[in-house]
Amino acid sequence: MKRAYYSNSILEFLSTDSNSILGELSLNHTNRSLEDLQKNAWVKQIEILKNQLIGIKGSIYFEFEIPRMGKRVDNIIIVDDCVFVVEFKVGDSSYLKHAEIQVIDYCLDLKNFHEGSHFVKLIPVLVATNASCGSYDIKDVIEHYCAAKCNKNGIGVVIEKFTQFSSNKIDVDIWENSIYKPTPTIIEVAQALYKGHQVKEISRHDADKINLTETSDYINKVIDDSKFNRKKSICFVTGVPGAGKTLAGLNVANERMKSDEEEHAVFLSGNGPLVDVLREALARDLVKTSKENGERVTKDNAKRRTNAFIQNIHHFRDEYLKHDIEPTEKVVVFDEAQRAWTKKQVASFMKRKKGIENFEMSEPEFLIDVMNRHKDWCTIVCLIGGGQEINTGEAGLEEWIRSFENNYKDWEVHYSNLIVDSSNYIKTKTQKEWLFINAVPVSELHLAVSIRSFRSEKLSEFVHELLDLNTNRAKQLFSEIKNDFPIYVTRNLEVAKNWLRKESKGSERIGLIASSGARRLRAIGVDVKNEISAPNWFLNDPEDIRSSSFLEDIATEFDIQGLEIDRTCLVWGANFYISGSQWNYQSFKGSKWMNINQEISKEYLKNTYRVLLTRARQGMVIFIPEGSGLDHTRPSHFYDGTYNYLKEIGIEELTALK
């Protein structure tokens, strides 16, 4: 796959006419609105590199694609055992921080997702052509804490510094043809899809493990068949935490927005923070890219354009509660469909908020009923996270199935075969039997491998065994993942924060997370009742006090479910702790803890910690406070058992020296 606009050996580059190189770059360039500006930059880069690379042997690339980021690196220069990733700032007389972060991000992306770059030296180089000579520490550059900085006359010196002790040479053919397996965040996915990228361009598609493309293809076949044969259908997509269910759903919604064919589609979620973050991210990105393309789009206009793509499920519900009409949308994707409300929860809400007495439908049944208003065809796609119901009144998958059993038997039901094989989805035997007889089981509708934590596909399995207190299996899995996905435990919050800051590179995000029920963390300065703005927490720069990376505001399971960041500190509360070889479940009322006795409430709390333990992409530290003999709400045994259990599994204690 050709990833660069121009590539050659340095020797051939030096001997090739500059206009010929420029012509090849222009031929592959697609953004016409910036053509003159870009051409001038290329002319300058070619001139500088022809001067600086004399006598150097290796390979050179112009405009090398980084698909996950939707960007292209100005230059990659391979010499001996080093890959120099070069960002030019033509005409700049200073080294801007955002440019340094950008080139470091390129290196991190290659290291994490480009197979040929996993074990080579990736050197970020920032060239401000008119600046004075920059200073940097060689070790920090190699470890990607900073970039090598130089002006237009210093590129050759940088290359010499990092290759003077080289002993091996990179096989350029192998490097160039290595598989690129990006694992984007859900924010990056939404931005890339909205810009018109295909899912296969921005996601992993290992043929033997990851079946995102197969899942999307199957759903599209169901939609096309429903449209052609004028029938109604539903697909239930399941998957382990972080397997890409939301990615698959966004992709289907994006592909089926065919307004010219009267085939409108929408991505709906009851997860308010997820909707807010994705909408804000799309709007910010549209403003930014429009500016880069020479257009002016205001933030308000950007929001109006992007908000139709992603909507809050409750607003959709309320719209069709008011108007008994066919929906505009023919294809509706319901994210986290297991969180739709039970009949009791909906009835209570309708009475309190809408003044409607005796509402007789659960949320799943009502949403199906809305789509059933279509006279010809429609398709619903339900994305189901097993074991992720975290709030009172969440119906789970069983309520969706019950609706089809009782009222919508003419619909065609397609479901992941894992639904009947796992107790995480359906617990009743009769429903499993109904599905077996009346629906179509499909392996392509289950996503079995977590791609959130690209460093360890076994993280979700480890978390499952940890929470089920299967100590031996948890030990085994931890021994397999710990080198790729570091997990530490500590009793010191500042130590945890320092580790997060030290490990963070480029624009990687870090943050504090905790259970919303961990109320007595307030005694140590962690207030889970303090509401955050999810868009600010996830999207703002690290210097902003509202940003996750500032490590001040804390996100709960409700803020972060369905989203992720690179590294987390999970602040463990006394609402869920080990004593006597079993989990104890508590909620804080008034001035004391109360035992949780209802099994469903226990399951919600356990799922809360499942969500929190699976939010990190690259590593986490678990902070467990020390108890207090002076505070009856924080005795030592509320914390020590959990701490000892994590240590028994093999999780190392983080010290100030780590």
Write the layout of secondary structure elements.
Blueprint: E1 4-9, H1 10-15, H2 18-28, H3 35-52, E2 59-66, E3 71-79, E4 82-89, H4 97-113, E5 121-128, H5 138-142, E6 148-150, H6 155-163, H7 172-176, H8 186-194, H9 199-202, H10 212-229, E7 232-239, H11 245-255, E8 264-269, H12 272-292, H13 299-306, E9 310-312, H14 313-322, E10 329-335, H15 343-354, H16 363-371, E11 378-385, H17 397-406, E12 412-416, H18 418-421, H19 429-438, E13 440-442, E14 446-447, H20 459-467, H21 471-481, E15 487-490, H22 493-503, E16 510-514, H23 534-539, E17 554-555, H24 557-560, E18 565-571, E19 576-579, E20 582-589, E21 592-595, H25 599-613, E22 616-623, H26 640-649, E23 652-653
Parallel strand pairs: 4-5, 5-6, 7-11, 7-12, 7-14, 8-9, 8-10, 10-11, 12-13, 15-22, 15-23, 16-17, 16-18, 18-22
Antiparallel strand pairs: 1-2, 2-3, 3-4, 19-20, 20-21
Short description:
It contains 26 helices and 23 strands. By secondary structure, the chain is α/β, with parallel strands linked by helices.
Task: Provide an overview of this structure.
With 658 residues, the chain is an alpha/beta fold. Helix 10 packs across helix 11 (245-255). Strand 16 (510-514), helix 23 and strand 17 form a beta-alpha-beta unit. The two termini are 41 Å apart. It folds into 3 domains: 4-176, no CATH class; 207-272 and 310-447, 3-Layer(aba) Sandwich (Rossmann fold), CATH 3.40.50; 459-653, Rossmann fold (3-Layer(aba) Sandwich), CATH 3.40.50. It is globular, with a radius of gyration of 27 Å. The chain is 40% helix and 19% strand. Strands 7, 8, 9, 10, 11, 12, 13 and 14 form an 8-stranded parallel β-sheet that branches.
